[in-house]
Amino acid sequence: MVTTVGTPTMVAAQEHRDRLFLDETGCAGRTVVIAQITGQIGAFANVLEVPASTVSTTNMQDVVNHSHNLLQPPTRGVLTMPGLELLSTAVEAPHRRLDYWNGFHDQAVVPTFTDTADLAGFGPSLTHTMVSDLWIGQVHSSPAVVHHTREHVAKTREPLFLLKIQTQGNSRICQDGREVSLQVGDFALFDSTRPYHMTFDAPNKMLVVGIPDALLRRQFARPERLAALKMAYTENLNSILSDFVQRLWRQCDLDVARATGHNLSSALLNLTAAAFDKSANAQDVGSAHLEALRLRIMHHIERHLGDCELSPKSIAAMLATSLRYVHSIFTRGDETISRYILRRRLEESARTLASAAHRSRSVSAIAFDYGFASCTNFGKVFREHYGMTPTEYRHEHCQKCILTPR
């Protein structure tokens, strides 16, 4: 048994039980729950190609006990489920949820910071477990923006590649100047050792698999070059990997998933390699040198965001190459190098404007810190990007800091 983190309400717990074992049929009752679990064991035994009778004999008493426990009223502060940890904001007051969520994720294996314009509707949750050496979890999120910044990269405890699979709604994720839009079933790979940003415009669900750097490199060389490439569900072998991970997740609450964890993780890694194989081969042709240059440019931009002279021309001079060649390196992404520089400056200035630690600093000082030559230009491009002026943005986000008790 693993005791979970968080304090879900009885309603949230019941919804979680229904999702895990009743496939949202709306059924209720202990007999139905046990029957459904028994059916899941048989189905999963077929997936694993092991005799269903062996699995049932080994695990049925645990399953019955588990179903009995799930039907009991949960103790406040603790929800126990075999192998799973649940972090929920459900019983936190709305004005406390964002701080609670960010406090947890600031200390996570891959730290992040979340922001939202709708505190009243903000109510994310995370359920996660380990399958052998792989971390796997499901995130339920309301509309929000999630940042994994340079500061978070420095605090990351273990280099991981994150396989993110959209299971409900949609998301936009940006890393290394590439932005991908994921629909249901689509997935993409992201590198925890470099900054990335995620945007959720509506409620959504996402499965995330954390793959240790060394394990993925055994499957194919230089996986970092595959970061932020959209893998559409309808293309190639992508649906096989997407469906496998989703089916695996539905079984993670049962001991059978952990008992065969090594085989399951190996299967997942092999399917990941197969899905990315075509993209990897396409990237291989002359890509190593270009990827190295691209990463060098990205790091240079991050270090010099405050330099008002930073431009494609200055980057070309730094590389001792032509301006045209610098632009060609960025043709692989969805935005030009100039747009990337502007976006990163706006994102960092917005983060500073929203920070309580910088509340006393003027908008113009922050603008100059991030390389904007004039307040007029800063105000114009900021409004185009965020739909409000810098002052309005600061007021809206600082109000959250004032209203949130510490």
CATH architecture of the largest domain: Sandwich
Q: Number of folding domains?
A: 3
Please tell me how large the radius of gyration is.
23 Å
CATH class type of the largest domain: Mainly Beta
What's the number of helices?
16
Give the overall silhouette: globular
> Main beta sheet, described?
6 strands, antiparallel
Oligomerization: single chain
Task: Classify the beta-strand content into a percent band.
Answer: 15-25%
How would you portray this structure in words?
This protein has helices at 10-22, 30-48, 52-70, 94-105, 150-155, 213-219, 238-251, 255-259, 261-284, 287-303, 312-319, 323-329, 337-354, 363-369, 375-386, 390-403; strands at residues 2-3, 80-81, 85-88, 113-115, 125-131, 134-141, 144-148, 160-168, 171-175, 178-182, 187-191, 196-200, 204-212. The protein is α+β, with helices and mostly antiparallel strands and 406 residues long. The chain has a six-stranded antiparallel beta sheet. Helix 7 (238-251) packs antiparallel against helix 9 and helix 11 crosses helix 12 (323-329). The protein is globular.
